[in-house]
Design goal:
The N and C termini lie far apart (about 80 Å). This protein is mainly alpha-helical. It is globular, with a radius of gyration of 31 Å. It has 11 helices and no strands.
Length: about 230
């Protein structure tokens, strides 16, 4: 029996055969791209890009935190979820163990409450009144206006009233740019610490934990229940 002649394939058939042969290769490439590991060299490049972006915005007259933010926003998202998660974890470990304590240290060293006097205490009371009234009262009234129960509205207002790290970052930027002086910076840091420290006690007061039902409430019923029913 004669062997079939192998002539040129039709264009459509050739395209289908090429696509079929290339599909496993493309799938393996996408799998490797999606699950590739962040190497030390790659992480060093990320840190270098982060520092260069921060330096560029600082050179342009903006604060360096805007450059760091833009660099993080420009990291590709498509087919790089694993890499983004690894970068986030590595930077989170670095910031929590080294950078964050150093930042709190420098923020605390810039606080000077030695010369505030009675006038400074009055200013601090006014700052606390405006800060708590603006956030706590505003959030509480807004939640109540949308039908949220009173206790849940108060808990939401308590969470909105906390400042914490974000407030310290904004105050540090304002102090470094000369927008606020050291005395006002010190009072605002105290306000941030006080409003953040208020959150725990207020939340426990507004949302007390419900005690589970005591065993004594159902044990007599179990004793009075026939043995066949208990089984």
């Amino acid at each position: 029996m004669a062997a079939p002649a192998h002539g040129p394939l039709p264009p459509g058939h050739a395209v289908r055969r090429t696509a079929t042969a290339a599909a496993p290769v493309g799938a393996r490439h996408r799998h490797r791209h999606r699950h590739r590991q962040l190497t030390p060299t790659g992480f060093a490049c990320v840190l270098a890009g982060l520092l260069l972006s921060a330096a560029a915005t600082e050179w342009a007259g903006l604060h360096f935190i805007f450059g760091a933010f833009l660099f993080g926003a420009l990291i590709p998202r498509e087919q790089s979820a694993s890499l983004r998660a690894q970068i986030h974890d590595r930077l989170g470990q670095l910031s929590q163990t080294l950078l964050l304590p150093v930042f709190f240290l420098t923020a605390g060293l810039a606080v000077d409450l030695s010369g505030i006097g009675l006038g400074g205490l009055a200013d601090l009371a006014l700052i606390l009144l405006v800060a708590v009234g603006g956030k706590f009262v505003g959030a509480f009234l807004a939640a109540r206006g949308h039908g949220v129960p009173a206790r849940q509205s108060a808990a939401l207002a308590t969470l909105m009233n906390t400042r914490g790290l974000t407030e310290l970052v904004a105050l540090s930027v304002g102090l470094s740019l000369g927008i606020i002086d050291r005395d006002l910076y010190s009072l605002m840091v105290v306000m941030a610490v006080v409003t953040t420290a208020m959150a725990g006690p207020l939340l426990r007061w507004f949302l007390p934990r419900r005690r589970p039902e005591a065993e004594d409430d159902w044990e007599p019923v179990a004793r009075d229940t026939p043995a066949a029913v208990r089984r």
